[in-house]
TrEMBL record:
Gene Ontology biological process terms from the UniProt entry: microtubule-based movement
Originating organism: Physocladia obscura
Taxonomic lineage: Eukaryota, Fungi, Fungi incertae sedis, Chytridiomycota, Chytridiomycota incertae sedis
Family: Belongs to the TRAFAC class myosin-kinesin ATPase superfamily. Kinesin family.
Domain of life according to the entry: Eukaryota
Protein name: Kinesin-like protein
InterPro entries in the cross-refs: KIF6/9_C, Kinesin-like_fam, Kinesin_motor_CS, Kinesin_motor_dom, Kinesin_motor_dom_sf, P-loop_NTPase
A cellular component annotation (GO) from this entry: microtubule
UniProt keyword terms in alphabetical order: ATP-binding, Coiled coil, Microtubule, Motor protein, Nucleotide-binding, Phosphoprotein
GO molecular function, one term: microtubule motor activity
UniProt-listed SMART domains: KISc
Length: 801
């Protein structure tokens, strides 16, 4: 990962090539005879003997060799994230833009890699541990934020899809209208957004919603909300999502992370198998062709025009391709024999991608208002530190603020008393006070000088006239002494060594030497003191939000598992009995609950297993959260107790006359203990936050899997027994199974929707989403965009040193 100092400061940003990583979809039919990976896990060799029954390939060529940054063969989601995304996500936190895009043919695993299979397809990927790069990146980002307390972060999320060359904002309230309009090719400024340039020449989508995400949970909510909106919209669109922005003081580092799930890359001839309309297929095909054209243009050094503006997709991705960005392409391949042609084509495209050079650099902006805020905060913190430092060094009474009139008068009295020898020493406590002394001496000196001049003039005059001056020259001996002392004092102060040595701790105000001639530091305070300026040690407010009573949910989930008929099934009327025979010789079930149990043991077994697994991990997480919550409560009451003890100790040791707090050993021990309990408290709160994020995530998965299980059951049930399970042959005798039913098309959809709206109107969106997925439109899919503005002045300064 490049460092800030190197790229931001010392020289021009270094050019980097787009990285390409190959990921294979695990399959039992892997064409190992044709596809070989070298042991370096970077090179692949494809050999298709001419004349083999795989004559589907250009029969002039038998061998293909490719080299990539890495090949992830049958790799886990965790490994893919660690090897591909982690570096880029971290560099985003340091101010670099990052893009990760998944490319490959339909079914090769792009969505699996990027997302979490939120489209309710196969249950297996809905498991938490199978979550893809996007939720992992979000999680990592917020973890990094929590580990960088010296920086201020603002994370904003946006989520969009590109469909038929329309950009649809998935975080607006009515994405379905947007998608409908997009599908109809209509233009509407609210949802057909445009890509424009900002003042730095960077592209952005004008009008795109940027929602604030304060934590992982909120970011995931937006992600799921966008996914849900997309499902409701019933269209497979290009998506751009999550954008987080982090802002703070004098330097604002702004970076974004694009996570892109591209369309299936197969050629248009294949699209008919996907149930895709020709218009959609053409748009998608065009979109990817333009992407390819851009990549070709970028890899050709002689080309000076890059056709980014030909399509929304390339325009949105402009910065990521040949711009200021760390870009990685994950080329997903499905290494079975029948897809070898698509595999070669994907590998070719990924190789071309690697020829694209980018110039990533830290994105720094300056914000004067934020700078002032930062300085104010720093000053506040330094003052607190100083106060603490003073109190630990028996240096109370120190004032760092400007002196007011009353204080100046006081000081002037002290100076006069000193000059008149009424006091022997001046107590020096701060630089500001020393300056004030100087001002006083200077003032007195000037007054005396003026008086002396006046007197001299008067004496001269009186000598000339023989009249004594009013008051007489010798009449005010004190003033004369004052004048002398002041002059001597000023001389002494002009000497370098008079102010005092620097303290060993590095505190720069300095103490007067105890053997100083005129100024002696009076160390008459033996006890440790705190300035009464609030809690200088632990100034930060600690959040006390605690998770309680989460166990209730567990009870519900338990019931779900044990009694699905109560929790998971809509309250349909039961059918009349075992012996009812319907149109095609199928038996009506006794009731849906029994059939549901059968379904869970048979066709829905895998889904049910995942549901149970997810619930178990949800339960475990909740238990963990509750134990954290208990710890937090215990820490909190411990903190309160210690505070009470400290307060009462303080009451007994406070000197009422000067309102200083004197700390004795016992109070010190209490404060020390308080500090460690607060640390433990904060740690528990942080862990709880993390656990809550995971809980939310898993809860969503549980809901999704549960809905999926139920819907599959419904479909199976209707396919097997007819609507309502009572042999109602509404489908004209063609209700022979789920696959067949799907082919009936609109008639079936209409009947099913009617039925669902009667039984459970809330489930309509889910059914719509499911239908949408089952039709398997070819997609130009997901782009996730995470944008950061990071306040890390301290870091930058450190690194630049
Ligand atoms: N690495 C993997 N491990 C386990 N299952 C996988 C993996 N990759 C893909 N799959 C499974 O293969 C199927 C197709 O994957 P996926 O939907 O992600 O493909 P895709 O490339 O996004 O296709 P499309 O372009 O249609 O969206 C899914 O059922 C998915 O769960």
């Amino acid at each position: 990962m490049a460092t800030i100092s190197r790229d931001a400061k010392s020289k021009e940003p270094a050019a980097k090539h787009v990285k390409a990583v190959i990921r294979t979809r695990p399959t039992a039919d892997f064409a190992a005879n044709y596809i070989k990976f070298d042991s370096d896990l970077k090179s692949t060799h494809i050999h298709i003997p001419r004349g083999s029954d795989g004559g589907f390939i250009n029969n002039q060529q038998e061998n293909w060799d490719f080299k990539f940054d890495s090949i992830l063969h049958n790799a886990s989601q965790e490994k893919v994230f660690d090897e591909c995304a982690l570096g880029i996500v971290k560099s985003v936190m340091d101010g670099y833009h990052g893009t990760i895009m998944a490319y490959g043919q339909t079914g090769a695993g792009k969505t699996f890699t990027m997302f979490v299979e939120a489209e309710f397809r196969t249950g297996a990927t809905e498991n938490y541990k199978h979550r893809g790069l996007i939720p992992r990146a979000i999680s990592h980002i917020f973890k990094e934020i929590s580990e960088r307390p010296q920086m201020a972060f603002t994370a904003r999320i946006s989520y969009l899809e590109i469909y038929n060359e329309s950009i649809v904002d998935l975080l607006i309230s009515s994405p379905e209208s947007a998608a409908a309009a997009a599908a109809a090719g209509e233009f509407h400024s609210d949802w057909n957004l445009n890509v424009v340039d900002d003042k730095n020449g960077m592209s952005y989508v004008k009008g795109l919603t940027m929602q604030l995400a304060n934590n992982e949970e909120e970011a995931l909510n937006l992600l799921f909300e966008g996914e849900t909106n997309r499902s409701i919209a019933q269209h497979q669109l290009n998506k751009i999502s999550t954008r987080s922005r982090v802002e703070s003081t004098e330097r604002v580092i702004s970076s974004k992370l694009n996570l892109v799930d591209l369309a299936g890359s197969e050629r248009i001839s294949k699209t008919h198998t996907q149930g895709l309309s020709m218009k959609e297929a053409m748009y998608i095909n065009k979109s990817l062709t333009f992407l390819e054209q851009v990549i070709i243009a970028l890899s050709d050094k002689r080309r000076d025009h890059i056709p980014y503006r030909q399509s929304k997709l390339t325009n949105v991705l402009r910065d990521s391709l040949g711009g200021n960005c760390n870009t990685l392409m994950i080329a997903n391949i499905w290494g079975v024999k029948e897809h070898i042609e698509e595999t070669i084509s994907t590998l070719r495209f990924a190789t071309r991608m690697m020829c694209v050079a980018n110039t990533p650099s830290v994105n720094i902006q300056y914000d004067p208002a934020a700078m002032i805020k930062k300085y104010e905060k720093e000053i506040r913190e330094l003052k607190q530190e100083l106060a603490m430092h003073d109190s630990l060094n028996n240096r109370s009474h120190i004032q760092y603020e400007s002196f007011g009139e009353t204080q100046r008068l006081e000081l002037s009295k002290i100076v006069k008393a000193y000059l008149k020898d009424e006091i022997d020493e001046l107590e020096i406590v701060s630089l500001r006070q020393v300056r004030e002394y100087f001002t006083q001496f200077k003032g007195l000196y000037k007054t005396l000088e003026q008086e002396r001049n006046d007197l001299g003039a008067a004496v001269k005059k009186s000598n000339a006239s023989g009249i004594a001056p009013a008051g007489g020259l010798a009449g005010d001996r004190n003033l004369a002494i004052d004048e002398y002392s002041a002059a001597r004092m000023l001389q002494d102060y002009d000497r370098d060594d008079c102010v005092g040595e620097t303290e060993s701790s590095g505190f720069s105000v300095g103490l007067a030497p105890t053997n100083g001639k005129d100024f002696q530091f009076r160390s008459n305070m033996k006890k440790k003191k705190f300035i009464n300026a609030g809690n200088t040690g632990n100034a930060k407010t600690i959040s006390t939000q605690i998770l309680h009573g989460e166990d209730d949910d567990d009870v519900v989930y338990e019931r779900d598992i044990n009694s699905p008929s109560h929790q998971m099934l809509p309250a349909l009327p039961k059918t009349s009995g075992n012996s009812n025979t319907i149109g095609h010789g199928k038996k009506a079930p006794v009731n849906r609950a029994d059939e549901f149990e059968n379904f869970k043991r048979g066709k829905g077994a895998e889904m049910n297993r995942i549901l149970i697994e997810n619930k178990a991990s949800l339960k475990e997480k909740k238990r963990y959260a509750i134990s954290l919550s208990t710890q937090i409560t215990a820490h909190k009451s411990h903190i309160d107790e210690l505070k009470v003890q400290i307060d009462s100790r303080r009451m007994t040791t406070t000197n009422a006359s000067n309102s200083e707090t004197i700390i004795d050993e016992e109070e010190y021990t209490l404060i020390d203990r308080l500090k460690s309990v607060k640390i433990a408290y904060r740690e528990a709160v942080e862990s709880l936050k993390g656990a809550r994020g995971e809980i939310t995530y898993i809860e969503k998965l549980v809901v999704n899997v549960r809905q999926k299980l139920m819907s599959e059951f419904e479909a199976w049930f209707e396919g097997s027994f007819g609507i309502g399970g009572g042999g109602d042959d509404n489908l004209g005798g063609n209700n022979g199974g789920m696959e067949d039913l799907m082919d009936i098309g609109e008639k079936f959809d209409r009947l099913q929707l009617e039925k669902m709206s009667q039984e459970d109107p809330d489930s309509l969106p889910f059914y719509n989403a499911r239908k949408n997925t089952e039709r398997r439109m070819l997609r130009v899919k997901l782009i996730i965009l995470i944008k950061f503005t990071i306040n890390n002045l301290k870091n930058i300064q450190k690194q630049q040193k």
